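Appendix B, example 12.
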Amino acid sequence: MSEYRLQRLGRQIQEEVGSFIVSGKVKDHRVDTFLSITRVDVSKDLAYADVYVSSFEDEKKLETGVAGLSSAAGFIQAYIGSKLRIRQIPKLRFHADLSVREGFDLVKKIEEINR
């Protein structure tokens, strides 16, 4: 599959999973509506989709949220399968993405140095 189509599929999965989380359809108590999907990387053979999750809350809540999403991955895949019309739905693997928090910390450090 071409790189453009993989990127487009990744964006579609990102939008669907994000709206699924925000709407509160995941009934796992560990999954908070403050979780956001930063990016999705789809493998070339469509076997896997690595979903990167971030949060503005502390890292412990992020890790528990990722664990909750991982346990609900089959349910989320079934939902995506009903929304997207593709032959093979990639297996979702959720990962904590700390890059947003690290970016904020870096900006704070730069501001402190400039003072």
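The chain has a mean pLDDT of 89. Residues 3-114 form a domain with the GMP Synthetase; Chain A, domain 3 fold (CATH 3.30.300.20).
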